[in-house]
């Protein structure tokens, strides 16, 4: 009977492999590899424990991306899009709105994971049998925490993976860059934009190894900890989607009602870009559609052109909510009780480090890895999360797009320019006629 059941399970796994071959899609293969890894871990636990090297390789590669990606995206986001002399009042309003809403998203995620405690009960003690020790979070007073924010050597901060120090350096560097001559600034921004693009492509290349990493991680996890881990994964998934729904209906909807957004028109306009974001798990894939949709309901092009790209760097509602939730999940899984003040500092770190990573599918894994390392939390639970990250990414990316579309309408309303697209088109046509 046992052999028959095992044979049946492997027939199902082979059928899933055939389905993955036909689909030729990375997300599908990640889900298929999760099933393969679970089966290997259940049937061949001794062999499964050796597959941890696959997830270790993946984590090492992910860590190489953190510093250049953060420096590139943050400096370009601030120096390239947030020059207060150029964007003026509209820029200030947009940036304040972004920070307030993303902070609320972080708090919602923090409350949700502390309420459900989805990470508690995971037995990571098996990791200690392999000679690895779970790091402890050292107690720090407020002076040590403040001092730790500022880098004394940027190369040292990069080498040690000190994400917050890299962020502070990037912000100061960006502010300094806005003060130099335009031709010098243009050269540096061009270089950093190229660096960001290269790192995004680097991330894409590494993600092709993700199915192997997921399969290895799940096999190792099941081989050492059994099938009970899936209870925690399902709870984490439900916690995320529940928190995202709470955020949409209790934060974004009241904002829309407060500024009198035409809801029916707005929902019809965002249906296609949000569906595209959900299917591809990439906010960038939905950007052209989202910009066109916002113009179609009455947001002037000049506001769409500023708010939407800036929002992709500073207004990642779904991603920031996920990061606060996932980082506390890691601590819970490791059996580390983080005090409230440490959780708040972690959220402030995430509020800064989550900027600028919406364009690449599963890029938030980079930020999560860096933040977790900065707070001396173990990496093992991240590989557990990676098993269902594709499903989580769909939800958080969709909320990113909804949040940015709403922000565009809100800024247009505040500026008193919502519905003036027709006037703008007439002006452009008049200018073109004069030029001819």
Automatic annotation (TrEMBL):
Membrane topology category: Multi-pass membrane protein
PROSITE patterns, per database record: NA_DICARBOXYL_SYMP_2
Record's GO cellular component terms: plasma membrane
Keywords associated with the record: Cell membrane, Membrane, Symport, Transmembrane, Transmembrane helix, Transport
Domain of life: Bacteria
Transmembrane region(s): 57-82, 94-115, 163-181, 202-222, 234-259
Main location: membrane
UniProt cross-references to InterPro entries, sorted A to Z: Na-dicarboxylate_symporter, Na-dicarboxylate_symporter_CS, Na:dicarbo_symporter_sf
Subcellular location: Cell membrane
GO MF, one annotated term: symporter activity
BP GO terms, sorted: dicarboxylic acid transport
Protein name: Proton glutamate symport protein
Organism in which the protein naturally occurs: Thermoflexibacter ruber
Species classification: Bacteria, Pseudomonadati, Bacteroidota, Cytophagia, Cytophagales
């Amino acid at each position: 009977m046992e052999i028959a059941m095992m044979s049946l399970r492997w027939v199902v796994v082979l059928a899933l492999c055939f389905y993955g071959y036909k689909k030729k899609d990375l997300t599908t293969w990640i889900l298929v590899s999760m099933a393969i890894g679970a089966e290997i871990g259940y049937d061949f636990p001794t062999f499964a424990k050796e597959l941890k090297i696959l997830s270790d390789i993946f984590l090492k590669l992910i860590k190489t991306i953190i510093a250049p990606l953060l420096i590139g995206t943050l400096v370009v986001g601030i120096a390239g899009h947030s020059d207060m002399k150029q964007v003026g009042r509209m820029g200030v309003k947009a940036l304040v709105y972004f920070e307030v809403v993303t902070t609320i998203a972080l708090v919602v995620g923090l409350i949700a994971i502390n309420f459900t405690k989805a990470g508690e009960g995971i037995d990571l003690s098996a990791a200690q049998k392999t000679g690895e020790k779970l790091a402890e979070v050292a107690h720090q007073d407020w002076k040590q925490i403040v001092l730790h924010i500022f880098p004394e050597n940027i190369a040292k901060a990069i080498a040690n993976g000190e994400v917050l120090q890299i962020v502070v350096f990037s912000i100061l560097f960006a502010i300094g860059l806005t003060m130099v001559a335009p031709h010098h600034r243009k050269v540096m921004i061009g270089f950093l934009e190229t660096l960001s693009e290269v790192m995004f492509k680097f991330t894409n290349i590494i993600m092709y190894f993700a199915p192997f990493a997921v399969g290895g991680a799940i096999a190792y996890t099941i081989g050492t900890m059994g099938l009970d881990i899936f209870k925690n994964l399902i709870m984490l998934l439900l916690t995320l989607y529940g928190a995202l729904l709470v955020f949409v209906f209790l934060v974004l909807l009241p904002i829309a009602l407060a500024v009198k957004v035409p809801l029916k028109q707005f929902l019809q306009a965002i249906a296609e870009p949000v569906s595209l974001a959900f299917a591809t798990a990439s906010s960038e894939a939905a950007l052209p559609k989202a910009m066109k949709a916002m113009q179609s309901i009455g947001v002037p092009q000049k506001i769409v052109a500023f708010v939407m790209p800036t929002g992709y760097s500073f207004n990642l509602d779904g991603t920031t909510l996920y990061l606060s939730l996932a980082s506390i999940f890691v601590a819970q899984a490791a059996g580390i009780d983080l005090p409230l003040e440490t959780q708040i500092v972690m959220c402030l770190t995430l509020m800064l480090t989550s900027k600028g990573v919406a364009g690449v599918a599963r890029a938030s894994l980079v930020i999560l890895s860096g933040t977790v390392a900065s707070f001396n939390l173990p990496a093992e639970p991240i590989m557990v999360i990676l098993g269902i990250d594709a499903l989580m990414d769909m939800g958080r990316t969709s909320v990113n797009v909804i949040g940015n579309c709403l922000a565009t309408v809100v800024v247009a309303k505040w500026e008193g320019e919502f519905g003036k697209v027709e006037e703008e088109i007439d002006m452009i046509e008049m200018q073109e006629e004069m030029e001819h």
